[in-house]
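[job 0412] stage=fold_complex status=start
inputs:
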Amino acid sequence: MPKSKKRSLKNINTPPGTVVYDGKKQDIKSTVSHSIYSADKIETTFIRNLDELAFLPEVVNWLNVDGLHETDLIEFIGQNFELHTLILEDIVDTHQRTKIEIYSDCIFTVVKQIRVKEQADDLLEIEHIGIVWKKGGVISFQELSEDAFTPLRSRLQHAQGRIRQRGNDYLYYALLDSIVDSYFVVLDWLSNRLDSLEDTIFSKPEQQHLQEIQRNRLALMHMRQAILPMRDALNKLIKDDLPLEFDSRTETYLRDVQDHIIQILETIDTYREINSSLKDIYFNGLSYRMNEIMKVLTIMSTIFIPLTFLAGVYGMNFKFMPELDWKYSYAIFWIINSIIIITLFIYFKRKKWL
Amino acid sequence: MPKSKKRSLKNINTPPGTVVYDGKKQDIKSTVSHSIYSADKIETTFIRNLDELAFLPEVVNWLNVDGLHETDLIEFIGQNFELHTLILEDIVDTHQRTKIEIYSDCIFTVVKQIRVKEQADDLLEIEHIGIVWKKGGVISFQELSEDAFTPLRSRLQHAQGRIRQRGNDYLYYALLDSIVDSYFVVLDWLSNRLDSLEDTIFSKPEQQHLQEIQRNRLALMHMRQAILPMRDALNKLIKDDLPLEFDSRTETYLRDVQDHIIQILETIDTYREINSSLKDIYFNGLSYRMNEIMKVLTIMSTIFIPLTFLAGVYGMNFKFMPELDWKYSYAIFWIINSIIIITLFIYFKRKKWL
Amino acid sequence: MPKSKKRSLKNINTPPGTVVYDGKKQDIKSTVSHSIYSADKIETTFIRNLDELAFLPEVVNWLNVDGLHETDLIEFIGQNFELHTLILEDIVDTHQRTKIEIYSDCIFTVVKQIRVKEQADDLLEIEHIGIVWKKGGVISFQELSEDAFTPLRSRLQHAQGRIRQRGNDYLYYALLDSIVDSYFVVLDWLSNRLDSLEDTIFSKPEQQHLQEIQRNRLALMHMRQAILPMRDALNKLIKDDLPLEFDSRTETYLRDVQDHIIQILETIDTYREINSSLKDIYFNGLSYRMNEIMKVLTIMSTIFIPLTFLAGVYGMNFKFMPELDWKYSYAIFWIINSIIIITLFIYFKRKKWL
Amino acid sequence: MPKSKKRSLKNINTPPGTVVYDGKKQDIKSTVSHSIYSADKIETTFIRNLDELAFLPEVVNWLNVDGLHETDLIEFIGQNFELHTLILEDIVDTHQRTKIEIYSDCIFTVVKQIRVKEQADDLLEIEHIGIVWKKGGVISFQELSEDAFTPLRSRLQHAQGRIRQRGNDYLYYALLDSIVDSYFVVLDWLSNRLDSLEDTIFSKPEQQHLQEIQRNRLALMHMRQAILPMRDALNKLIKDDLPLEFDSRTETYLRDVQDHIIQILETIDTYREINSSLKDIYFNGLSYRMNEIMKVLTIMSTIFIPLTFLAGVYGMNFKFMPELDWKYSYAIFWIINSIIIITLFIYFKRKKWL
Amino acid sequence: MPKSKKRSLKNINTPPGTVVYDGKKQDIKSTVSHSIYSADKIETTFIRNLDELAFLPEVVNWLNVDGLHETDLIEFIGQNFELHTLILEDIVDTHQRTKIEIYSDCIFTVVKQIRVKEQADDLLEIEHIGIVWKKGGVISFQELSEDAFTPLRSRLQHAQGRIRQRGNDYLYYALLDSIVDSYFVVLDWLSNRLDSLEDTIFSKPEQQHLQEIQRNRLALMHMRQAILPMRDALNKLIKDDLPLEFDSRTETYLRDVQDHIIQILETIDTYREINSSLKDIYFNGLSYRMNEIMKVLTIMSTIFIPLTFLAGVYGMNFKFMPELDWKYSYAIFWIINSIIIITLFIYFKRKKWL
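[job 0412] stage=fold_complex status=done
writing structure:
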């Protein structure tokens, strides 16, 4: 069974707003990339000298940070762009749940990238991602070095779709959309896993199957917990007064993302039902096999017990047992046995045990 | 067990608003039909030359597209009638859930036609249908070539009912109503299936019955998921400010559709209860049979075990066993056996095992 | 198990507002009665000539129709009193759920009379009743010929209570109240049924008891579905602007009816709990009996298996078996047997198996 | 199992507002007491002459009626104090659920006093109590002769607490508070009952324990049903416009009562969880014992079956069986037996069956 | 199983507002400490002379009381700072649930400190803590002598974080935050406990494991009950008009606390799921072992029953049994036996029982 996700105790009993990374240890150095683009050009640079860190005017700015474990870096970026310390705390707190918060000068979003990564203790890898949309640009913070936005980058590069024509609001939407899209890949993998597990359980239920079912249950539960808050959070973007404005065309797209979220949540519910019905099938398999075992025992016992008794009777040493001296006793003994066997056989057939 | 409906991965990582069909492969060409009618005449033409595509004035216009796999066609119609790209995306996205969306110039509806189609992996076929009601006419998009609106067409043809007297709003309502009506056919089939399954399980529970129960469970769940969003969506039509107006007489009919939806959802709940009680009956059947098996084993063993012991005793070869030499020992042996059998028989009768 | 209530397919694919009766076939002709009363007189006539059908002024008018299968009659009454076609459709649609609808000139109510009628497939008979309260009088439509309002009629006749002093609003309330009162009779019968079923299951669980439990479950579910919508519907009468006015004294009585509904729903919930606990008791009975059976088998086997082995040992034909020649071997054999039996007996006593 | 509480059918089919007592038969005569008090004096008289029944001015008036079965008396009091007939109906209708109703001239409250009274069919005795707070005084109606307000009376008598300084509103509050306090006594008893039941089930599960668990379940359910409506009802007192005014100091106390109610409801939920876990423990006990029984059977059978077979082999009468004539055959037979026994013993030890 | 928390009956039937301590007996004397601090200095004194008890101006005042059993002390403090008697009652009523109450001159908070303390009857120790924030300072009341605020105190001492720069509102927030932080420690312990319990159950399920599971269930339930009300209570602080004002910077921190609460509640839900899946694993272990036992019995019986019968046959004493005299009978007997054993062995292999 996957271990329950534990919150590291590192940032307990520290003052609130302290920037303490509590995710997995990372060996690789954090990297910062800065993409600027407009309809006609796009340029991405990896920033080494942090002093150059600033949004350029009149283009769309996308700053991306890979790796949250270098908290100095995060704090420096925070000071540079004047982010609230609680934003910084949430960016590195990988247990922070999904949310969208409206600050007076920016929109801060926590989302979870979900990848299939079958480990000893979990089926899914849930990556913590923070997105800040400020006047002038969007900053994304990724926990792991594996880039969550590769497909989006290639669309940007190839000037595919309408993204290069639009502003920062559309970039912000595109980041959310790209993460939501990735959930479908996980659902697809889960669907295949459930189907093949069912086939295996049905042909031969084994004790470890129950553990597989529990792993699915937890994976679906963690996935649901990571996605569910998004449904309501998106409402805020659609209904609240925001410090930054969405193009009216972008709003329709936000509603589309929300639609996908609801669809994903429904699919998760379906999978949970299927998974719980796997448990029924598993336990039914156990019961059915028990029935089979008992049937074999009962049939064998019921047939041979009277025969053995009969053999025992004629093994007795009483002096006066007339049958012992009859000539055809032994043949009659076998005839009687055959009759008993046939009778019981018919009886079991009728009972549908055979 | 029916496989869980998988979303094709084709339209993941494409820009939003991309028109990608993700349903089953279709061999037949898409067809477009245009029906125009008023109180005194009706005319339906199959359109081959797409340039002629336009709503005629002063009559009710109904444009129907069969087959969503030719996305070029869908896109052409979209441009022709100025539909939002997200509408087009939803029309061909067969996994889009049921919804009603109010755009500034049209009302867009996604509904699901449900048909009984017992396949290897599913009991029901859920067809994706998009309906756009614009000023001037109604356009319906059907995923499959089988026409979902046959009864409505014949009512139109025969000038039956009030439909020919009314406008586009009534046509829009009639399309919804016609789909909701078809759900009753599915419910009727399910009701028969549940009844006959129960009889079979009761007379002889087999291991595959559990799978049949799971198939029902999923079919009912998918049906519920397809219908449930409709209940709230209809509220929008009744309560919201719409860009197109319903005749006040039509509004009463919308409330009637909503009433039917609630009735269908209640029936689905009843069927889910019945289906889950089938599981109880199935498992009870297993337990009961186990009980029967054990009873047979126990009765046979309990009767013959002491008799066999007794026979064993007198099969011993001790030199000094006075009974062996008595004249009536053998007869007494049988008498004792009979007494044991009768006593146990009475005991089992009292225990109500016989 | 009671069959799930099926909607007849007759009125599918007909235009909405079509008056199609879908209940059980009725052999008896429909009858129409007209009662008029005031504080000092009451008169009830059976109407044969439908042209006379009209509300009289300055008295309370109660028109009652028994039997919904003559749709011509219903339609004639509908036209005569200018009822909306959807009201007529709902009056004869016996699957229409309980509701109260406020029309611009009348209040239309669908309620369900519930009677105990133990049939092959159901425990309860649910009768569809429509009540229209228009300016001038109240019209009630009953599906079955058995009068649902007998006690009310006798109260009217004997000028008992305050009903004769009051107007049409009180009559409308009295009809509702009279149906709600009848639910208590059904609950009383169900309570007795549950109690006696429990006694039976406890003394000897049989396989058909599970079916009885399922029948109760469905009956309680249908009853709940028939009554639940009433709770909210009554709120409309109390809170909404109505086209007809309730005497302020009558309003208090409406709240009283709502109170009764809530009380009935709570009792139904209690009965559902009791019924589901019957299932526990049933399955526990099965398990317990299984335990008993296995105990008997184990005790008998455990006692006789070593004895039989011992007898077998001394039935062996080895030449050199010193015990065979000893004088008291046989007596010692029985002594050893007795010791084994007593030891095991004590062991089982300690284990509390005896 | 406790019988489900049945509503007597006496007051069905009577006009609404009819005063029909439907509780248990009472042998004792109803009594009416009248307490008047102010800060400096208190006086309680038992009223025999009903004509004297009136509230005295400038003191707090508390009229208490014990016994609801003399409906004449209730009706007389009702007329005397001008109470609505529906109030009277609810006062004597012992199945009326808990509620607070705001009338134009009084506040009418139905509450339930709960006492532990272990009878054949129920664990708790639920007493119906009606409280009317009118301008001038408070009238309480108790179903049973056992006084629900004894502790309150003694506090009044001894001028303990602030009650003697306050008015009718505080008296009304004190009556409610006193009933809510009594629930804690019941919870305490239930807690002890659950604890001791668990110990018993754990040491030796018996079939009747399941019934005890069901009795707890129903008792907790009835208790919950009696208390739950109070939570919302108290909101009315706090938020609604009332015909009578609470001292602002008393309002804080009302919120305190509501707090207690929520605390009681939470405790009931905890007890329901504990009770349902008792069922798990019970069924686990059954399974575990079954396992034990089967283990004994299997160990005994598995050990002796091969031994008995071996003894049977050397009991055969074949002419040519070399072993029979060997000198140490018999000794070897026992050695082999010992080896078999030891081997199996080790096997069972490894399997952890011993 | 942990005993359900019982409310002491001491404060039933006492006037409301009576200060009665109902927690565990405490041997140690209560202590009162007074901390005053500003940005540049901090001073904590233990107060012995209660007359000195007062808030100092222009610094942050934190009065902390350890031990609620000396009710005189609590009452004295209450009078000194003019606290409502109901606040005092709630401070010493250790069963009072978590809440935040807005009084006209102060904000009163009840929270629960949770510590891991594995006792005979419970896994967690839930400490009752009352916090009053009045103009001028904050007073905290702790049930147990173990200080709940140690980490906060050390942060204060070392001028760590922003706490020394801020006012009473921030102190009030810091107290809440410090308690919420401590919940993570408990969750961490529970997570380890669940993991190790699972390993144990999986390797060898024992009857007492079910009890461990029930203990977890209750612990999680009590924890949830202690924390859940906090979620909504914090809303009051954020949205309501308060008699004392939060610094606008502090408000953001309050939302952060609420975030943590939601995260904790989600984790509790996950643990409840895991715990309930432990029950599945436990019961599955029982079933699986039963299957194993029955398999051994059946295999042994099925193999030896026919062999024993055969041996019995040739132990019969019939005069005319030709086989007895054949030379190779005995060898053939063993050959037949071997064939039977091998056949059955193959059969069981195919059935996958071996």
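[job 0412] summary: Residues 228 and 267 of chain A are 12 Å apart (CA to CA).
[job 0412] exit 0
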